[in-house]
Amino acid sequence: MNIVDSFRLDGRVALVTGAGKGIGEGIAIGLAEAGADLALLARTRSDLDRVAERVRALGRRALVVPCDVGDVAAIPSAVQQIVDGFGRLDILVNCAGIQRRMTVLEATVEGWEQVINTNLRSVYFMTQAAGKVMVGQRRGKVISISSMTAYRGFHMISPYGISKASIANFTKYLAVEWAPHNIQANAIAPGWIETPMTAQMGAERVQWVREHVPQGKFGQPRDVAGLAVFLASPASDYITGQTIPVDGGFLAGNPWPTAQY
Question: In angstroms, what CA-CA distances link 123 with 96, 116, 135, 238, 247?
Fold first, then answer.
């Protein structure tokens, strides 16, 4: 296999949660472009149907699986539906997530549980369900979406940051535990990416981001998809337990204003 072929995903089946929009949609399309067939999972069927059309236009198979990952009791049957439909499961991308803005003093149990259940608990039990299939196959890739908030504190999003930091830590435990089964587990920590979530930001916050990201702009879902394809492919078989930022250099440091150069 030459180095270019080692990035191909032909014959592989990938499950992407949160596949109906944003980063999840971008990753799903990227995996399809690399040759994978896709199981698309999210709450809203209409979003999934639209993404499935894009996948099929690339000549790949797409299975739509409406599911709220926050309801962990629904996860095993969703995974079984995928295995019944495709006969295998090679790649899991845990992308479903939500954010609720709240200070520590104002946080409610309901708000906390909403974020933690969707962003962390569902990742753990979705990985468990998919892992049972992968262990039997003696091969698999688990890719979870963490965040730059796993590395730095931000105002009013502590439950979100805690959930994303926990994903980075879970990835290490998973890598060690499943290495004997030839399963690699890694995470991606996006910075500010243009998605429906960041579209809610006000003009002042958008300007602050542009001034503090060294590349001076928001990323695109395809910027995350490129790394996801690599981590899903044989090219990354000796990489496991890592969380890799995709953030335009934000975590490396903040630039001086142009006038200072």
Answer: 8, 10, 17, 23, 22
